[in-house]
Amino acid sequence: MALVIFGFTYLVAAAIHLIVTWLAVGERARSFKAVSPGVLSPLGVMIGLFVVFVAAQVWGDTDRATAAANREASALRSIIILASAFPGEPEARVRTLVRSYIEEAATREWPMMAIQTATLRITPPPAQELFHLDISLTPVSQGQQVAQREIAVALENALDARRQRIIVSGSAVNGVKWSCLFIQAVCALLTIALIQSGDRRASAITMGLFASGVAACVLLVAAHDRPFTGHISVAATPLLQVMPEAAATVRAPNRTAE
Length: 258
Description:
This protein is mainly alpha-helical. Helix content is 73%, strand content 0%. It contains nine helices and no strands. The longest helix is centred in the N-terminal third of the chain and has 43 residues, at 40-82. The model is unreliable at 247-258 (pLDDT under 50).
């Protein structure tokens, strides 16, 4: 990505430099030199504000994606802890369903979110089974009644966090914003080329420096553009960290001595 962005930016800058140098002859050269250097200041301010505006959206999406993944993991962890109120087969079943939910999210949903194809049309089957299991439990104590109710609340929170991360996975900087940023950068490069048209070396150095700054800003935004894509992305690590052990390792219910 860095090679493509920097290479394309330098190519555009070189093309502008060559075209302006070729046209800067005779009367046109005097007109080019008459361009006021003061134009660069408002252009630079506008580019800076636009980069901040786009970056705020990108980093906001990343923060929301991270928060959603963490909240989902926390809710699933609560379900695992609350399941201990129903020792034996119910607890083992809850742990198995939570494990299946996390495995499906990490192996199927995360790759789909990376390519922005994940949808909210289907609720994960493990979540549906977990809901039906919860309402089918027959609590025999007040503690189990509270645990049953809290499991339902935690499951609702987990599904809500899942909806949030899938919605955020479809967010990206649209083509209009990229086009506006490109036009502003071209205008600034063109202004530099016109002002420095009388000195080719100074023009090349100045345009190269400005192009490097623009490419660095674009790279920073593009690297964080899609929260679940690329090396700098939100991973399923929080969910995998709370994945319960196999159901076979669940403790058996306590029995009173006869």
